[in-house]
Amino acid sequence: MSSSPPIGVSAEAAGSALPATRVEAPPVIDLDAPELYLNRELTWLAFNRRVLHEGQDSRNPLLERIKFLAIVSSNLDEFFMKRIGGLKQQIGAGVRTPTVDGRTPLQQLIACYAEVRELNEQMRSLALELHALLIEQGIRVRSYGKLGDEQQAELRDFYIRNIFPLVTPQAMDPAHPFPFISNLSLNLLVSVRYPNDDQVMLARVKVPVGPGIPRFLTLDAGSTFVPLEDVMANNLDLLFPGMEIVAVEYFRVTRNAVVERSEEQADDLLVLIESELRERKFASIVRLEVVKDMDPVHRGMLAAELGLDEANDVFEVSGMLGLRDLFQVAVVDRSDLHDPPHAPLDHPKLAGAPNIFHTIRDAGTIFLQHPYESFATTVERFVREAARDPKVLAIKMTLYRTSSDSKIIEYLVEAARNGKQVAVVVELKARFDEAANIRWATRLEEAGIHVNYGVVGLKTHSKVIFVVRRDYSGLRRYAHIGTGNYHPGTARLYTDLGILTSDPVIGEDLTELFNYLTTGFTPKRNYRKLLPAPKLLKPALLDKIEREIRQHSAKTPGLIQFKMNALEDVDITRALYRASQAGVQVDLIVRDTCRLRPGLPGVSETVRVVSIVGRFLEHSRVFYFRNGGSEEYFIGSADCMKRNLESRVEVVTPVESADARQELRNLLDLQLLRDRRSAWDMQSDGSYVQRQPEEGGEQRGSHEQLIEAAERRQREATRLKKRRPRAVARRGAY
């Protein structure tokens, strides 16, 4: 009886049976075989299953579970806008070329739809479970019809005074064209008729959720939430006086966000991005969500008017549409239903230091971990003191995303007013933040700051602040290089790493980088420590992987450890397969998308893939190579994705100080080995199994353990300062 060849091995390579006297050579495994690679879209959806599991996990506080449900809903909205929109464009263009995993765009779309529908069912089931648990805690999401007369009157009065003037009904008949339906808008499809008249007419009413108008109206001191659409549906006599309301049905649309033009043909990049934003507003619709009991005729009519395939692009929903709006419920002020409060701590080396530049200069490099250590008292302080220090002559930085209340923007404006040279590279094409970045660019230019939009054809995704200061010994360059955006909000929610450094070589490299970013000129630039993309980073990573293969031996076994958001690049994945085949241990901490399959015989037997899903969003990137004992650690802005490595300006920096390397070592060991709560191990088929705490063992995930470690570092630093008030406190390891 014949057997199938091993995975990735062709029948020809496997060969036929040989005489027992001969030793058969091991089969040659084709590392381009599609079955070796997981699909990008499906692995991202699998990540959202893990996020949803946090909502399903009764070990989490109730309002945190609500938050995770809202996160998954928001993620799926973005998935349809970006990934499904892109697949539909490929299908429309007739693209049939398969991806590395062997799927055409149409096959990917079909597989994604099946996964999304299953995920939706789990979300609806969880929503019902959480609703019941909220009631037990005195928090209610109630329909208008179940309220008492006084509460209904209160909401009706509030609606009339604060929302009703904004509502515009739009008829849908031969005399009125089908109305424009905005992205992610929630809508009422109202069937009305005149009294004693059988003719039913349709009207669309948009629910005006937006700035200042929440999805839920509240009663009982904020413990009762009533959906705005339900209030509107039960007060339609205000919009259609004297008419009979036959039916009210809800629907919601999602539009394609993949609307990009060629920069090379644009005379003005700012005008180009503004044009793209206008086009995105009117982009094609990729999803229609309807209530489950919608009239089939109405459902078909909406699908036809919106240009959708009713059988595939219409998603029926039981219960509330747009679960992302449950964020409003998740922030109810009930400390007993939230995670224990967490306040980022001051960095032990910076707390109490009178001058941040003197401290950085004395330390050489200061290692930062957010959100465990405060963004405000480290990164924001760095920019604030640079703006006000009379010895600082210039500030340069990259800006990919920030918040509406960003203090960094204010400090840059202040620096310009103080006569310093300020240059900011603003990435206008940061997806979904384009409009905000246009506003920031305009504000900065009005303050006299030199604003540049980066290099044509490349997104500037690096996270760098560069300061030139006149020290006692002449000009000295200081820098912050990080893994996260300069966004104070996400700095409290995302796990990110960074360094504050006065390393002169890194300073020289950053001078080269900013000269490149502000001119786009690409002569041979001499980078001695930094690994910028797209020129150097990918070749350097591939070279270092190959070096690990060459140096691997029983005496000095090779070890590669990467921590990142996504592993999608095929070249990097293939190189890691080769490393595993050579016997190198490969440890990967990958938050979401991962093409590589661990544990495949003859291919990836020495590979371990771990995903961390917990209180904070994993966002840091770390690259480690044992290098025959001469260890190398790097952190930076780049994931191992083709777009990051080949079409973005990224910056990865070595981490050379002993204490920072020790903290990185502890971080990697913790998440790879000691996290028994929030770590998931990928199986060879691409599925994940969540680790379970051992009886009597550590019950907390790595995020909680890192919070404790930061507190321990601060206590130790305080103790040392009390004993030796003039000494520089050193950070301890956890």
From TrEMBL:
Protein biosynthesis listed as a keyword: no
Binding site for Mg(2+): 401, 431
GO terms (BP aspect): polyphosphate biosynthetic process
Residues bound to ATP: 75, 494, 591, 619
A single cellular component GO annotation: polyphosphate kinase complex
Domain of life: Bacteria
Bias (Basic residues) ranges: 720-734
Keywords from the UniProt entry: ATP-binding, Kinase, Magnesium, Metal-binding, Nucleotide-binding, Phosphoprotein, Transferase
Pfam families linked to this entry: PP_kinase, PP_kinase_C, PP_kinase_C_1, PP_kinase_N
Record field: catalytic activity: [phosphate](n) + ATP = [phosphate](n+1) + ADP
Domain Polyphosphate kinase N-terminal as annotated: residue spans: 37-141
Cofactor (UniProt): Mg(2+)
Annotated ranges, domain Polyphosphate kinase middle: 150-328
Gene3D superfamilies the record matches: Endonuclease Chain A, Polyphosphate kinase middle domain, Polyphosphate kinase N-terminal domain
EC number: 2.7.4.1
Active site (catalytic residues): 461
Positions of the UniProt region annotated as Disordered: 683-734
Ranges annotated as biased composition (Basic and acidic residues): 692-719
InterPro entries membership: PP_kinase (IPR003414), PP_kinase_C_1 (IPR041108), PP_kinase_middle (IPR024953), PP_kinase_middle_dom_sf (IPR036830), PPK_C_dom2 (IPR025200), PPK_N_dom (IPR025198), PPK_N_dom_sf (IPR036832)
Domain Polyphosphate kinase C-terminal: 355-519, 530-695
Family statement: Belongs to the polyphosphate kinase 1 (PPK1) family.
Matching NCBIfam families: poly_P_kin, PRK05443.1-1, PRK05443.1-2, PRK05443.2-2
Matching PANTHER family: POLYPHOSPHATE KINASE (PTHR30218:SF0)
Protein task: Catalyzes the reversible transfer of the terminal phosphate of ATP to form a long-chain polyphosphate (polyP).
Protein name from the UniProt record: Polyphosphate kinase
